[in-house]
């Protein structure tokens, strides 16, 4: 049986490069769309994605091995209500995990230019 794969990182750390590399090289993870556990959070401020309900996430996780992205670790408890942590814990405990690390200075420079593109007056 294939397992879910968590890609865990700070923002601007090469998360999507890692996701693309995995999905392009492992066909089992290419078949279904990427899940972002961050959008399941009621505290999500992610404006690029619509929030995903607990039931939608549960359904998607049951479809097969998924690539699951998050920037919230290790403090996911502060973003997800206690009643939703069980789904996350079950998926996380049985999953493979890749933690993407990038030098903090490079992260901040990348974040600066990213924000500058979004808000030119920044």
What's the gist of this structure?
With 122 residues, this protein is an alpha/beta fold. The chain has helices at 15-25, 27-30, 54-62, 82-93, 104-118, and strands spanning 5-9, 35-36, 67-70, 96-100.
Query: Number of folding domains?
Result: 1
Mean pLDDT: 83
CATH architecture: 3-Layer(aba) Sandwich
In percent, how much strand structure appears in the residues? 5-15%
Number of H/I helices = 5
- H/E element order: EHHEHEHEH
* Ends apart, CA distance between termini: 48 Å
- Write out the strand line-up for the largest beta sheet, numbering strands in chain order: 2-3-1-4
- Weakly predicted, low-confidence segments: none
- Tell me how many strands there are: 4
Question: For the report, how would you describe the main beta sheet?
Answer: 4 strands, parallel
Over all CA atoms, what is the radius of gyration? 15 Å
Shape: globular
In the CATH scheme, the class would be: Alpha Beta
Overview of the molecule:
The protein is α/β, with parallel strands linked by helices. It has helices at 15-25, 27-30, 54-62, 82-93, 104-118, and strands at 5-9, 35-36, 67-70, 96-100. Strands 2-3-1-4 form a four-stranded parallel β-sheet, with helices on one face. The model has no long low-confidence stretch (mean pLDDT 83). It has a single domain, classed as Rossmann fold, CATH 3.40.50.
List the helices and strands and how they pair.
Blueprint: E1 5-9, H1 15-25, H2 27-30, E2 35-36, H3 54-62, E3 67-70, H4 82-93, E4 96-100, H5 104-118
């Amino acid at each position: 049986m294939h397992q879910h794969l968590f890609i865990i990182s700070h923002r601007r750390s090469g998360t999507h490069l890692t996701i693309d590399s995995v999905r392009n090289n492992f066909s089992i993870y290419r078949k279904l769309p990427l899940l972002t556990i961050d959008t399941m959070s009621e505290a999500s401020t992610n404006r690029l994605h619509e929030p995903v309900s607990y039931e939608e996430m549960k359904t998607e996780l049951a479809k097969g091995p998924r690539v699951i992205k998050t920037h919230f670790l290790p403090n996911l408890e502060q973003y997800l209500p206690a009643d939703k942590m069980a789904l996350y814990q079950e998926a996380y405990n049985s999953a493979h995990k890749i933690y993407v690390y990038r030098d903090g200075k490079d992260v901040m420079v990348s974040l600066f230019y990213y924000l500058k593109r979004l808000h030119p007056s920044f």
